[in-house]
UniProtKB/TrEMBL annotation, chain A:
InterPro entries: ABC_transp_permease, ABC_transptr_urea_perm_UrtC, LivM-like
The protein's name in its UniProt record: Urea ABC transporter permease subunit UrtC
Subcellular location field: Cell membrane
Keyword Ligase on entry: no
Transmembrane feature ranges: 47-65, 72-91, 126-150, 157-175, 205-235, 256-274, 294-317, 329-350
From TrEMBL, chain B:
Lineage: Bacteria, Pseudomonadati, Pseudomonadota, Alphaproteobacteria, Hyphomicrobiales
Keyword Cell membrane: yes
Pfam family, one: BPD_transp_2
Keywords, comma-separated and alphabetical: Amino-acid transport, Cell membrane, Membrane, Signal, Transmembrane, Transmembrane helix, Transport
Entry protein name: Urea ABC transporter permease subunit UrtB
Superkingdom to which the source organism belongs: Bacteria
Matches recorded under CDD domains: TM_PBP1_LivH_like
Family in the record: Belongs to the binding-protein-dependent transport system permease family. LivHM subfamily.
InterPro entries associated with the record: ABC_transp_permease, ABC_UrtB_bac, ARM-type_fold, BCAA_transport_permease
Length: 378, 530, 418
């Protein structure tokens, strides 16, 4: 709210950092010889790609939590659904290269004696269809779920709890082998994406750059949404829902729109995540995962967008470091982070930094001109 | 009576001696135990049980309890008093063990032991032993026991033992080749009256060469039993539902208090349950190593301790974290989730990741049979316990000053504060109470579930569903919610399977919340606006 | 930001890359999360084996160094951690994974980076990869002998196949169903039941089992119920009075570790099929248990089947490295086939060309003290089948990495992989 231009200072900073990452990561991976201090090891590329996907997921959560006050504890479900749509495409691409050599049926169907492809698998061999499903499936679920929930004014913790129930129910459903989606083992052993081998270094780089691009576009989209009149109403809903309703806004429509948009972003994040980690399995639906996403946002700074990205990268890098260096302490660190951030940094790291910046720049301005800084008319 | 039995035993003994003298079956069978072969052991048991030797019972019972020993080709048994006896002569053999090894048993041998003891102890002076024997004979359907069985029926004084004896006789007669049709018809009637799954199996597996009128009668009887069983099965499912509902009630009721009073979503609630379960484990460990005599009371001793441990941890959490977050329910949710992770990993670090063993006291083992339904004592105990906890909480909230304050704060915090209630103290105590109740739920759950660091995780979503479904701020809502979900789950399970049933229920709750966003028993008035 | 993260990560992991003089061994077992309950002990076993090997003077003149990471029961994290072990820490071999899904998750990584994984847990079979060595049991080394035992010794005619709904029970039960039917068991005498992970309310299912078992024919339960769900299952069995003499339960996923959390007195006589029991009386096992107890400083610490699998796998790897004279994966993969090492049950296990090993099959009955009493065992070691002969999809497939150089050779089409 400090500025209304789409390209304010924060946006430019975020976009240039992302651009730098999109350029530097491939160069550092390709050019310097292995062993040099500048070389970025091969195994870090998909790892960073994974972080970027998580950042997009965190962004989608920040959009609804930070700006509309909707705390979804089931956003992992949309992420996973997008991932499954992509996974189904990748499974179909394996074709006859599975261990049983069946040109149509994925391996897990063969050894469970499935005779033909279930109906919902059809079409997934065609990338545009799969890409559409990446958006459509999470979007449709969010639309239906949100329509019911917002229409009957389920809010606050009640909404959070039923989103948990939703993702838990989906997890149980996907664990069932009879669903035809691989049960607990999920979808794995992918070979190619759009004709490029997924294991290949250059495919990895391409996926990474794509993820960064998706994150940048997602960021711009969110920026644009929250900067628009629509976004103002969202903030009004967050801060005083009843009042906004009495002013004549159809609150549930606003909430439904932003919730669905957020689910679409989460779905895209999931779709980009799957080829980079090489597996999608029902544990992505685990209620705990969705709660963890919220903490990324909280750490970075709720309602700042850039904070969500920052928080996701920071916490996940921390997880990588802890699970290697101090395996026993990872849960202590994560749990402690939850408590610390909610208690001492309610606005997150970026929020706190922003406050600091605000204060010092206000002082500066106050020295320059006696007039207080006013916000433009809203 | 005693006199009669003595005479009888003497007769049996004499007869046994006679047959032993004839065949020497006992002496011949005994060395087979030393072969370390289950087939030989099995054969030896049969021979010994039929030998009539007075030592037979001792030998077979010792074998069952692992007190039958072999060494250097000889067979011994150790009396419960510790005295070592040479099984061949019945004479004491000093107290040295030397290279004695117990005879190994497997299921096949165990079955043979059971059948043998059945025929050997039908005339025992102990009614419990006779009952056990009658059941064993009913299972083994050994025609050779028929004469003893008749004798046992004739002199049986206890009606419930007599019933089982008669059904054992019926079971034998039904499939006995040369039984008279009239005997068989009577057997059908006896089994019809018994009316359980086993009787049904006997009646529907009648040998095809049986007389047609017997087959027809058996068919009728089987149909009758099926109808009866179908009825009881429905009742049984409702019971399972109530028992699952009680587990949910226990897990959720503490949550209902904290959520209702202070609007705090305590994601660490499941960990309070876990702490209660681990307290039970600790208590049992202490009792096992120091006061083994108290084991039967271990759960009762654990109850107050579990309450104390969990509620202190709860109050600690409230004082150090949650009180700074009032009015920000979503943040509390995140902070308590963090606490739950810390508690889980903490317990994992201290106690290790593996399950801990919590024993079941004898009074909670076994089952009570009502009609064709069997209610296990531990489930009964949990149901009774859950309802008592519920009643006590109800009374506490209704008749104590703490309860009064809690209710006041639940209904209108600011007004309560204006009236001089120290709301922050009430918050802490309510949180402690809720956590303490979770702790004692842990004592109960330790009886039916894993005692592991993950224990709480399994219940957290279910208990939230109960609270949300039942509505906040009213314990009756929690009770109705828990029972509805429990019973619905168990009624769905036979048709939809465990997984689909659960999914269906979750979806039903999600839909239900849309209809009544504040649950079944919503608080009315301004309190719910925030 | 991504760069800062990258720097953080590489900085963190670079610290571990010190002297080049050691041979590194990766240990990939969950130390937190739901699988920690089973996997933590395997980490300890690996640390003990490495320490012991170093006491013997290391391997081909170098010291061994174990690199432990925590995949936290999170399947994508398994892939990430294995990549880290191989690329960053340059480990020569990895010992790890427990669940099928964690193995499936790391498979592509091991293939891509051409490293070696030793997988120590009994599994559903239907797999043979060049980079993976399966030291746990395949279905024909556990499930089928157990069923044979029940049919022969206990005269079982009616079968309940109860399992957790995931791939191992599904496949095992498919194989068993086909096998039982081929032995003349009728469809109505087989009851199949699946439950979700962590299922805790077994009242209905145990009652169903009792009902199914009271038809007059001898009934047994073949349980592929996983981990955590077993404790409430056995507690319910005990409470409802299902005794081993009436309806025996034979389990494939319940070992000494799992029983340590249960009061076993009411369960005496129920069975388990494994390739190792702690109670097996051989000098090798006695020595191992002594070492294990003194290493963990816990006289009550139990040992179990996957631990033995790691012992065998580790010893095979050591021998193969000595034979090849290098830790280069390609050379070790070639050298290890045919390597024989003594197992802990008195036999000598051999690595087969299909990357499975030969193992004895033991049937044990639960004793009062939580141990197993071996009531039956195969006369000879059984060779592990990568592909089940009882499934339509795999009956024509064979795996042979020595001569055919193929994990899924079709004997009908005479082609590899189709």
């Amino acid at each position: 709210m400090r500025t209304h231009s789409l390209f304010d200072r924060q946006t430019i900073l975020v976009l240039s950092l992302l651009a730098a990452a999109a350029i530097l990561v491939p160069t550092m991976n390709e050019l310097p010889p292995p062993g040099s201090a500048l070389h970025l090891s091969d195994h870090l590329v998909p790892l960073l790609g994974k972080y970027v996907c998580f950042a997009l997921l965190a962004l989608s959560v920040d959009l609804i939590w930070g700006f509309s006050g909707i705390l979804s504890l089931g956003h992992g479900a949309f992420f996973a659904l997008g991932g499954y749509a992509m996974g189904m495409y990748l499974m179909r691409q394996i074709g006859p290269r599975g261990v049983y050599g069946d040109p149509i049926l994925p391996d897990f169907m063969i050894f469970l004696n499935w005779k033909e492809l279930p109906w919902f698998w059809h079409g997934f061999d065609w990338f545009p269809f799969a890409a559409l499903m990446v958006l459509l499936v999470p979007g449709a679920l969010a639309l239906v779920f949100g329509w019911f929930a917002f229409r009957s004014r389920v809010t606050g913790v009640y909404f959070s709890i039923i989103t948990q129930a939703m993702t838990f129910a989906l997890m149980l459903a996907f664990f069932r082998n009879d669903m035809g989606l691989g049960g607990n083992n999920g979808l794995t052993d992918f070979k190619e994406i759009l004709g490029f081998p997924v294991q290949n270094g250059s495919t990895r780089i391409a996926l990474f750059v794509l993820s960064v691009l998706a994150l940048a576009s997602g960021y711009l989209l969110c920026r644009w949404v929250v900067g628009s009149t629509f976004g103002k109403v969202l903030v009004a809903v967050r801060d005083a829902e009843s009042r906004t309703r009495f002013l004549g806004y159809r609150v549930e429509h606003y909430k439904l729109t932003v919730f669905t948009l957020s689910a679409l972003l989460a779905g895209v994040a999931g779709a980009l995540y799957v080829p980079q980690v090489g597996i999608i399995n029902p544990s992505e639906f685990a209620p705990a995962n969705s709660i963890e996403v919220v903490i990324w946002v909280a750490v970075g700074g709720r309602g700042t967008l850039a904070g969500a990205i920052f928080g996701a990268l920071l916490v996940n890098a921390g997880k990588t470091w802890f699970t290697a260096a101090l395996p026993e302490f990872w849960l202590f660190a994560l749990g402690g982070l939850f408590v610390f951030v909610t208690l001492f940094m309610p606005r997150g790291i970026l929020g706190a930094a922003g406050d600091l910046w605000e204060r010092s720049s206000q002082k500066l301005r106050a020295r320059r001109s006696p007039q207080p800084a006013t916000h433009a008319a809203e | 009576m005693v006199f009669l039995r003595n005479i009888l035993q003497a007769t049996v003994l004499l007869l046994g001696m006679a047959s032993a003298a004839l065949a020497g079956a006992y002496e011949e069978a005994l060395p087979k135990f030393a072969n370390d072969s289950y087939v030989d052991t099995d054969a030896a048991i049969g021979a010994i049980a039929g030998s009539g030797n007075p030592l037979s019972i001792d030998v077979v019972e010792s074998l069952r309890d692992g007190r039958l020993l072999v060494g250097s080709g000889q067979v011994f048994f150790r009396r419960t008093s510790g005295e070592l006896v040479n099984a061949a002569t019945g004479q004491a053999w000093g107290n040295q063990t030397g290279e004695l090894k117990p005879v190994r048993v497997n299921n096949r041998v165990r079955r043979a032991i059971e059948a043998a003891l059945g025929s050997l102890t039908l005339l025992s002076s102990d009614a419990a032993k006779r009952l056990e024997a009658a059941r064993a004979v009913f299972r083994s359907r050994d025609e050779a026991t028929l004469p003893t069985l008749e004798k046992a029926i004739a002199q049986e004084g206890q009606p419930h033992v007599r019933n089982v004896l008669e059904s054992a006789r019926a079971a034998i007669l039904l499939s006995k080749q040369d039984a008279l049709p009239i005997q068989r018809l009577a057997a059908v009637q006896t089994l019809r009256n018994r009316g359980d799954q086993e009787a049904l199996a006997l009646l529907s597996n009648l040998p095809s060469q049986a007389p047609p009128e017997v087959i027809a009668a058996a068919g009728n009887a089987a149909d009758g039993i099926r109808t009866r069983l179908a009825f009881w099965e429905a009742v049984q499912n409702v019971w399972y539902g109530i028992s699952l509902g009680s587990v949910l009630l226990l897990a959720a009721i503490g949550l209902a208090i904290t959520f209702g009073t202070i609007g705090v979503i305590n994601m660490a609630h499941g960990e309070m349950v876990m702490l209660g379960a681990y307290t039970t484990f600790m208590v049992q460990e202490l009792i096992r190593s120091n006061f083994p005599g108290l084991f039967e009371a271990s759960l009762l001793i654990a109850l107050p301790l579990a309450f104390l441990v969990a509620s202190s941890v709860g109050i600690l959490i409230e004082r150090t974290v949650i009180r700074f977050l009032y009015g920000r329910p979503l943040e509390t949710l995140l902070a308590t989730w963090g606490i739950s992770l810390i508690l889980q990993q903490g317990v994992r670090t201290i106690f290790g990741p593996t399950n801990r063993e919590v024993g079941t006291p004898a009074w909670m083992s076994g089952a009570l049979d009502i009609g064709a339904m069997s209610l296990t004592y531990n489930r009964i105990a949990i149901v009774v316990f859950a309802f008592s906890v519920f009643a006590i909480l109800l009374l506490v909230l209704r008749y104590t000053s703490l309860g009064l304050y809690v209710r006041a704060v639940t209904q209108n915090r600011r007004m309560a504060g204006s009236m001089g209630i120290r709301t922050s103290r009430v918050d802490a105590l309510a949180f402690g109470l809720g956590s303490g109740v979770a702790g004692i739920a842990g004592v109960a759950l330790s009886q039916i579930d894993n005692v592991s660091p993950n224990l709480g995780q399994g219940y957290i979503i279910d208990s939230f569903m109960v609270v949300v479904f039942g509505g906040v701020g009213n314990l009756w809502g929690t009770l109705v919610g828990a029972m509805t979900l429990g019973i619905a789950n168990k009624l769905l399970e036979p048709y939809a399977g465990a997984v689909l049933g659960k999914i269906a229920l979750l979806i039903a709750i999600i839909v239900f919340i849309q209809r009544r966003p504040r649950g079944l028993f919503a608080l009315k008035g301004r309190a719910v606006e925030t | 930001m991504a760069l800062a993260t990258a720097a953080l990560v590489s900085g963190a992991t670079a610290g571990a890359a010190k002297a080049e003089e050691t041979i590194k061994v990766g240990v990939l077992h969950s130390l937190s999360g739901t699988m920690a309950i089973s996997e933590t002990t395997l980490k300890d076993v690996m640390l003990m084996l490495v320490e012991e090997q170093n006491k013997k003077g290391g391997l081909i003149g170098k010291k061994l160094e174990a690199v432990v990471v925590d995949p936290a029961s999170n399947w994508p994290l398994f892939a990430e951690k294995s990549r880290e072990l191989i690329s960053q820490h340059k480990v020569s071999a990895v010992f790890g994974a427990w669940t099928s899904v964690s193995r499936k998750s790391v498979l592509p990584v091991f293939k891509e980076l051409n490293s070696i994984l030793f997988y120590p847990v009994q599994y559903e079979g239907e797999e043979s990869e060049r980079n993976v060595f399966y030291t746990g049991a395949a279905p024909n080394q556990q499930a089928i002998p157990a069923v044979d035992y029940l049919a022969k010794e206990e005269k079982v005619e009616r079968w309940v196949l109860a399992g957790t709904d995931y791939v191992y029970p599904r496949t095992t039960n498919k194989i068993l169903e086909a096998y039982l039917k081929s032995k003349g068991v009728k469809a109505e005498d087989i009851m199949v039941s699946y439950t979700p992970f962590g299922h805790s309310d077994w009242q209905t299912i145990v009652a169903d089992i009792k009902k199914f078992g009271s038809s007059g024919k001898k009934t047994a339960v073949v349980s592929t119920i996983n981990g955590d769900a077993n404790v409430p299952f056995y507690k319910e069995l005990a409470n409802q009075g299902v005794k081993a003499t009436d309806i025996p339960v034979v389990a494939f996923s319940v070992g000494e570790e799992e029983l340590a959390g249960i009061d076993t007195k009411p369960l005496v006589g129920h069975l388990a099929a494994w390739n190792y029991f702690q109670s097996v009386e051989t000098p090798e096992n006695k020595a191992f248990i002594e070492k294990w107890k003194s290493y963990t400083k816990n006289p009550k610490r139990v040992s179990n089947d996957p631990m033995e699998a790691h012992v065998i796998g580790f010893n095979m790897w050591v021998k193969a490295v000595e034979k090849a004279g290098t830790t280069d994966p390609d050379k070790v993969i070639d050298a290890i086939v045919g390597i024989k090492v003594p197992n802990l049950t008195g036999g000598v296990s051999e690595m087969l060309p299909n990357h499975h090993i030969t193992k004895p099959v033991l049937i044990g009955e639960i004793k009062e003290d939580g141990q197993f009493d071996t009531v039956w065992q195969t006369d000879d070691l059984v060779a592990g089948d990568a592909w089940s002969k009882h499934l339509d999809g795999s009956k024509d497939l064979v795996a042979d990495w020595q001569t055919l150089k193929c994990g899924n050779y079709n004997t009908v089409t005479k082609k590899c992989g189709s």
